[in-house]
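Following up on my earlier thread - several people asked me to post the actual chain instead of describing it. Fair enough. Here it is, all 325 residues.
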Amino acid sequence: MIEVIKPGLETAVQDYPGRKGCFGFGFPPSGPIDHWSFRLANLLVDNAASAAGLEMAFAGPTLRFEEDAVIALTGADMQAALDGRPIPLWESVAVRAGEVLAMDYATSGGRGYLAVAGGIDAPLFLGSRSTCLLAMAGGWEDGPLKAGQELPVGTERIGKPARRVRASARPVLSDDKRWIVECVRGPNDDWIDEAAHERWFSEGWSVSSSSNRIGYRLDGPEWTFAGKATNKAPENGEDPSNIIDHGYPIGGVNLSGQTPIILMNDCLILGGFINPYTVPHGEFWKLGQSQPGDVYRFCEVSVDQAQASRRGIDSLCTPDSIEAC
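Reply from S.P.:
Thanks for posting it. Predicted structure:
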């Protein structure tokens, strides 16, 4: 068992790839936003990629381990210390019964990941152990961690300490709060005019403090629209960004009036706003590691290029990326 002394900020159990095929029941996939860092953490402790771990947003928890364990921390640097001793990111570490793992605010990156050999043994909900914060369902006791809870660890604990992720296999976090984020046009790119397309790809877009696992709100220039957005049948709605209710892709840039919102892991996928662009899943690790106030510059890619980038990440999330310290 792992005792939660302090929960941190929005610390929750997640697994990869999350809850699939359940939108018909009203539940999104959830799962880790930075799936790259999450999978590497599991590899470090010899877990399956699908094993449940913790996602920690901006400030990490304080946890007491009631039994010996092997753990790994990846993603954001939350100044982790074990009984006061700093411990490294991207390495597997032995923990003794009774030791306390304490984390603080992230000094780089946005979301940290903790894997424990054996995985967090949370109950399955619709086939996944992931927490849906929008519905307060799944994970451990249907929500983010709370002080006083005890998290069970799976019995198959074969992790070994003193292993690390090769430097070439790790995501490179921004050191200046600026990110180049790939996106593809569509599905509703013909509802905005060419001037709006040019601004989207040439201007910086700031991450709003209102962003969360449902959607990342962006602040930036005003939007202008194509003729079909202003000369349309009344059932499409009054605002130029309104359209007859239709499906949204995860990663869709949902244009709500003048506010673009990147739809994230806990989003809904139906509504009456246009989605002129889509951020591919291979780019989500950048979103997960950014903080409010960070600036995105968007780079247009084709669907084929987006899929190739994702396959490149998948090729690094293998045991070949792990070496002895």
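The chain has a mean pLDDT of 95. That should answer part of your original question.
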